Amino acid sequence: MAEKLPKTDVVIVGMGWAGSIIAAELGKEGLKVVGLERGKERGLKDYYVVHDELRYAIRYELMQDLSKETISFRNNMKERALPMRQLGSFLLGEGLGGAGVHWNGHSYRFLPYDFEIKSKTIEKYGDGKIKGLQLQDWGITYDELEPYFGMYEKVAGISGEDSHFGPERSIPYPTPPMKETPLTKKFKEAAKSLGMHPYHMPSANLSEPYENPYGAKLAGCQYCAFCERFGCEYGAKADPTVAVIPFVRETGNVDIRNYANVTEIIHEGGKATGVKFVDVLTKEEFIQPADMVVLTSYVMNNTRLLLQSKIGKPYDPNSGTGVIGKNYCYQILPGSTGFFEDEQFNTFMGAGALGATVDDYNGDNFDHSDLDFIHGGSISFNQSGARPIASNPVPTGTPNWGADFKAQSIKYYTRSLSVSAQGASMPTKNNYMDLDPTYKDAYGLPLLRLTYDFTDQDRNLYNYIGKIGDQIMLEMGANKVNERSNLESYDIVPYQTTHNTGGVIMGAEPETSAVNNYLQMWDAENVFVVGASAFAHNSGYNPTSTVGALSFRAAEGILKYSKEGGLLA
Amino acid sequence: MAEQNQSTDKKMSRRRFIRNSSYVAGGLVGGGLIGGLIGSNLGNKNQDDAGTQGQQHENGAYQQAPLYFTNPEIFAVLVAATERIYPTDDTGPGANDLGAPFFIDHSLAGSWGNNTREYMQGPFYPGSNFQGYQSPLKRHEVFDTGLAALQRISNEKHDANFADLEGEQQDEILTSFQKDEVELKGVTSKTFFNILRQATIEGVYADPAYGGNTNMEGWKMKGFPGHQMSYYDKIESDEFMKIEPNSLHSYTK
């Protein structure tokens, strides 16, 4: 029998970026908040012995323990979904700060085009252009979201500079861009000579010490090259445990409870009354009653909790109706690896978001009239620091073991560079999430089932953008650029990106979206679902800044709802 | 005596650090862990300067003992196979000299060998090429199965143990595993080969604390400086830099 705890104003499920920001904003205004986090407590003090590639980058020390919970996966509806037994394609977070502890820090704002993608594409190219895509506007415009981007960037202290294609900004970047290195310079010069418009990658590894509006003092990055998959021992990477959670505690209104794994949202008459959770250490069950429930537990868990709790209409891929689980998107990532015979580089130095980018082939910054795809991708050179277990670049045709592999991988470890694109991912009817009929988690509850494969839109984008990357790489002086393999079926094994999106998407109508533009559920007005789960498609950038902006937007909505009630949009 | 030298060296290194520290201090204001770390970091570098590498090597040698394998003939199969994957040659030592077999042995005895943080509930089905690892076997069982099969096939084909074959014969057998031409129970030979290959690379390049990468020789060959606290003053330089590596051991000194 679950023990019933005293009622609170708001219960938040998951204490990553979104949960921490919302807890800070609500706690500041005097609401009583309980923050439930399934993983352990952690912070700067725990990032001591982090320069260990094996432990953190290969064995995934900071990521989700799949023995307790995973997803199942299949490429299409005809297949049997099987559990993702090991981490690979994406690295799910777990613990205080969530994946915000071990991210790289690339901090772009999505494009104005993204938020109105359907209207703008049809307006310019006609209906036929979006055939086969389940495209939707987001129910909010860039201009409406702009102030919230600023709030997030001030909290994270983002280091950056204005760019040619960059949308309008009401505030400058809080800190100047990171250092220019011989390699970022090389990329920029090559891109410029090809007529493109390079700029320094906006970074959450800070170029200089910075104090954010919550009073957190962040340090300047030391370029130590242990960033993505690691915590930052300097507190130089904006991470919720460094930038937000100390303030959350200072408000005195937020009780953070670790090892609390939420298994159900309890509801009655179209409103949530609280959540049920299990203490993962003692296995005791509790009920936390609350006036408002906020889900900030990543794409997968936000979707799963709603399906499990039977809130909102599940998406049905056969009819295209329903909303929960709809429009799962990922990202399309063509890369170009170049080999240099006469130059040797300090590739082992770096920082997560040290780099340079061009947007000339992102969004609708280029004409798609004669192209067989929409959108595009950012193309970047990222000097994040090559580590020896993972980085063994060899020219195409080299075997992957034996004497030749050894000699070539050693030679090219410091004599090869990569340019990589983050291509946008468009939703289709058959890429979605629901509950698995067979496999269960450690608590006996069904796993989330992911059905996903690449489409022709994805392949066409991949081939086109990939060739631009090759051109830049050759212009950088590479003697040889590796042949890129074709984009066939989506494979759950090799690491691609932890930029999963969708499942609880936002929009202007309850028929086609799950939440409104305050991230409030149409079908349960006191439930707010926040994160990249709200993205109606995925853009050609890293998602975190947009998640941060939506979190501030949601916090404003929750405060408004706590006073006025009712649907906010 | 060694101890005394070390502490003198540490003091020297701290002084040297303070002299050169403007670049670091320029970037640091927050509540990081930097103070304690930088001293110990350079402490280790200095120890290298003092030529105590031999002692480090000796300490490392205590780790080179089996914690998982019990049968020397099977361990010899592992040694021979990893050495073919990452052989000794002109570029430097191979997997065996770098302690990769002991790294793998220790890993099999622990969490990784027992898949403790992975989803191991049934039912089990082979799955498509895109659904990832679906074997009911744990990694240590995959190695038991795979290494025994390498030995069996070697005996069938050449009437000799795998470890006693010529390099080319060993490569031929390993290649047949990689191409999935060998039938194993509970796991494919390709899966076994891929895990073996990946584990060998890990054993060569993981921190020496794990029992491989003896004396950081794997890193030295590749030009990876291991654990360094900062490249703040170096990253803008056009010059390629050879930097003496540091290991995790320097955190605790």
UniProtKB/TrEMBL annotation, chain A:
Residues 216-329 form the Glucose-methanol-choline oxidoreductase N-terminal domain. One of its GO terms (molecular function) is flavin adenine dinucleotide binding. Keywords: FAD, Flavoprotein, Oxidoreductase. InterPro entries: FAD/NAD-bd_sf (IPR036188), GMC_OxRdtase_N (IPR000172), GMC_OxRtase_C (IPR007867). Residues 427-550 form the Glucose-methanol-choline oxidoreductase C-terminal domain. The keyword Oxidoreductase applies. The keyword Protease does not apply. PANTHER family: LONG-CHAIN-ALCOHOL OXIDASE (PTHR46056). Belongs to the GMC oxidoreductase family. This is GMC family oxidoreductase. It comes from Cytobacillus horneckiae.
UniProtKB/TrEMBL annotation, chain B:
The lineage of its organism: Bacteria, Bacillati, Bacillota, Bacilli, Bacillales. Keywords: Membrane, Transmembrane, Transmembrane helix. It holds the Pfam family Gluconate_2-dh3. This is Dehydrogenase. The chain crosses the membrane at residues 21-39. InterPro entries: Gluconate_2DH_su3.
